[in-house]
């Protein structure tokens, strides 16, 4: 069976890969795996492509893969290790093994390492400017009672910092109120940390636009639709 032949179920390999890619991306986000936008897309696409390729392999290869009892994690790591050399050989205009050092480091770094790095970062390093309730009351004139009411109703994003303390990303406020659409995004992505991470990164579903910037410009419907598509 060739790459573009259709299996008995009537679905092409590319379509199947797309469906698996979407499912993996949703699973990563729902479980709070924090990746930058590029890494999230790459991880999901890789999983989708690998899973979708299996039904299209010859039976002998499928049986061989099914009987493999080795360490899949080690095998995948070995695969990633070969990617920089393959890119260096196959890239137009480059000699064997030639590639930018930054690209090589990015490819060699595993997805789990990227996630661990982000998880260990301080909130201020990835969330932008944040402030506590005292600052918001003094500078933006938002009463603590109002802020806590918004928080209980999931109308504002609060990020836990330390023990029980919460801080609030400042970019979500305009004229002393949360921008429209925050509550709808939180209903689609209940994890506040993950929701804010998604809001502040270019989204492939929004033509690489940044969702929080779109909310600040009253482009609420597009952002909500994209958030629900991920959830």
Which helices and strands, and how do they pair?
Blueprint: H1 13-30, H2 37-53, H3 59-66, H4 72-90, H5 101-108, H6 111-120, H7 123-126, E1 130-131, H8 133-139, H9 144-152, E2 159-160, E3 166-169, E4 173-174, E5 177-178, H10 182-188, H11 192-199, H12 211-216, H13 220-230
Antiparallel strand pairs: 1-3, 2-3, 4-5
Helix pairs in contact: 1-2, 4-5
Structure summary:
The protein is mainly alpha-helical and 231 residues long. The chain is built from 13 helices and five strands. The chain has helices at 13-30, 37-53, 59-66, 72-90, 101-108, 111-120, 123-126, 133-139, 144-152, 182-188, 192-199, 211-216, 220-230, and strands spanning 130-131, 159-160, 166-169, 173-174, 177-178.
Number of helices: 13
Count of domains: 2
Instruction: Describe the global form.
Output: elongated
Radius of gyration, whole Å: 22 Å
* Low-pLDDT windows of residues: 1-6, 89-118
- The main sheet orders its strands as 1-3-2
H/E series: HHHHHHHEHHEEEEHHHH
Note the main sheet. Answer: 3 strands, antiparallel
* Count of β-strands: 5
N- to C-terminal separation? Answer: 34 Å
Tell me roughly what share of residues is in helical segments.
Answer: 55-70%
Structure class: mainly alpha
Summarize model confidence as the mean pLDDT: 74
Beta-strand content bin: 5-15%
What does this structure look like?
It is a single chain. By secondary structure, this protein is mainly alpha-helical. The chain folds into two domains: 108 residues, no CATH class; 107 residues, no CATH class. The chain contains 13 helices and five strands. The strands form two sheets. Strands 1-3-2 form a three-stranded antiparallel sheet. It has a two-stranded antiparallel ribbon with strand order 4-5. A hairpin with a 5-residue loop joins β2 and β3. The N terminus is likely disordered.
């Amino acid at each position: 069976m060739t790459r573009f032949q259709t299996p008995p179920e009537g679905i092409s390999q590319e379509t199947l890969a797309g469906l698996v890619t979407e499912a993996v991306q949703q699973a990563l986000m729902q479980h709070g795996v924090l990746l930058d936008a590029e890494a999230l897309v790459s991880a999901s696409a890789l999983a989708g492509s690998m899973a979708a390729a299996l039904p299209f392999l010859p039976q002998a290869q499928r049986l061989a893969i099914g009987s493999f009892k080795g360490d899949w994690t080690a095998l995948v790591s070995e695969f990633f290790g070969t990617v920089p050399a393959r890119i260096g050989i196959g890239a137009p205009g480059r000699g064997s093994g030639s590639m930018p050092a930054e690209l090589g480091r990015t490819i060699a770094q595993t997805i789990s390492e990227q996630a661990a790095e982000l998880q260990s970062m301080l909130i201020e390093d990835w969330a932008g400017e944040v402030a506590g309730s005292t600052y918001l009351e003094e500078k933006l004139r938002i009463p603590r009672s109002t802020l806590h009411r918004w928080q209980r109703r999931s109308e504002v994003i609060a990020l836990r910092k330390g023990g029980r303390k919460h801080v609030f990303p400042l970019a979500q406020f305009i004229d002393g109120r949360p921008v429209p659409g925050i509550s709808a995004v939180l209903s689609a992505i209940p994890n506040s940390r993950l929701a804010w991470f998604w809001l502040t990164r270019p989204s492939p579903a929004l033509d690489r636009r940044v969702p929080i910037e779109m909310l600040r410009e009253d482009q609420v419907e597009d952002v909500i639709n994209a958030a629900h598509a991920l959830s």
